[in-house]
Write a structure and sequence with these properties.
The structure is a homodimer. By secondary structure, chain A is an alpha/beta fold. Chain A contains 12 helices and 7 strands. In chain A, helix 5 packs antiparallel against helix 8. Chain A is globular. The relative contact order of chain A is 0.14. The mean pLDDT of chain A is 95.
Amino acid sequence: MKTSLACIPCIITQCLTTLNLTRVDEEKKKSAVNKLLEKLKTIDYDLPPSYNSDIAYAVAYEFTGVKDPYLKLKKECNKLALEIYPKLKEMVEHSKDRMYTAIKVAIEGNIIDFGININKGKPLDFQKILRDIKEMPFAIDDYKEFEKSLDSSTNIFYVGDNAGEIVFDRVLIEELIRCGKKVVLSVKSGPVINDATLEDVREAGLTDIVKVIETGNSSIGVNFRSISQKFVDEFKKADLIIAKGQGNFETLDNIEANTFFMLKAKCETIANKLGVEYLDVVLVKRRHEWGSKKI
Amino acid sequence: MKTSLACIPCIITQCLTTLNLTRVDEEKKKSAVNKLLEKLKTIDYDLPPSYNSDIAYAVAYEFTGVKDPYLKLKKECNKLALEIYPKLKEMVEHSKDRMYTAIKVAIEGNIIDFGININKGKPLDFQKILRDIKEMPFAIDDYKEFEKSLDSSTNIFYVGDNAGEIVFDRVLIEELIRCGKKVVLSVKSGPVINDATLEDVREAGLTDIVKVIETGNSSIGVNFRSISQKFVDEFKKADLIIAKGQGNFETLDNIEANTFFMLKAKCETIANKLGVEYLDVVLVKRRHEWGSKKI
């Protein structure tokens, strides 16, 4: 999908949020923001928003020298999520439709938004999570199509999103494996925001369960300008692709494949694209009208 | 108060919101945003945020030629507010503490936020307004000091904020007059966002009740670089100043005067300055530590 003008303030906010996680002084932050303002004047609006958001993180790194400002946060999010992992598993095991519940658990991992505000040391509110999952307010729910598609699929390619969320993904991945599917999970090759890396999926206990590959870069979503051959191979081999979160939607929406997106629309631009309201939740099968690029 | 880095994305959003109210095409909007990005590189962070927000509206005007994009919206907001005005008056008349209720009505006018989303033709939800006023969640409530100060005051200078809100202000202004106070109300000399102008206070039925003066410019808040002599005179003459909304707080917080601010903190920067949470409501007396500039 393309970058919209509404993405510009958001890209600057992403840079500021990242700068504020470091110890650089106000003057340095101003210099970083000025550099970003300059760069934003020449961005390509035909590219996905995530490609342009990458600029924010590159500028933050250039001015702070901090390679992974979200490291501590990511570890905290994994820890919090792992604390409730047994309860999430139990929920799936006691449900009428295990797969549907596991999907909702995975989406809940995206709803929680393991962002910078979660890092207060408090455990996750499991009662709220339970309520969220029971009453998940799907604006688009293509589960029937997912179910049908899953029946005729063997190879599932799971495009991961954030640390913390990855523990919720584990519940769905384990359910897919239980149903006899072969699952490959992709994570980032290096740090960007709080996106899951190999270290995170190791912490989440996924490396022993599933084949994990890296995207080949540390870009938000799937950046095809520097994607790994492994990613391309697994993507092409897959019968069904599960893509979590906004970044993956922004970059895979127009790629011809049997892709199901699971996310909460955390900005107006994404909501508009999906034809839903801001903050709505969707399980949506990729639509042909979004484009037909070959990978 | 000073501009913070967090104001930058907000200033761009203000420009975009304004551009989107006009019929200019996407390319023109991009050019406008690029011009704004360039200008934001050289802003003076020591100035109040509103001074720098003015740049967003100047750029929008430069690229669209539309002098008052909020005109239709302002008229709609005045109309909606006037529909419930009799009920607001009734509420004050039946309350135990008329002045306190009138203040809460005026603050509710700021809480409602007569922004672009209100313009759906629907009447205002009076039941919600009633609840808001009854349960107004003051994070700072300096009413006792206000009451004391009002007792020894004759001349009140009321610094107005938005269209629509101005009808709610009328309730407080009428209560002040009923108590024998002389009230002067200031409005903008020209259009900026949805700020009230002479035309709006005429529509709100205020011109027959109170002396209305203009700020001398069409800047957000009180821009002392081009303020009218009338404003300065009335400000100096006043025993007590009531300043509504964020723009006025941003520009009057450091000016030595007996000023009471009434607003909802609609951004983190204002909330931080006031030491309250985002979206909190305050009736706050100006504090000496905020500065002691003479007008």
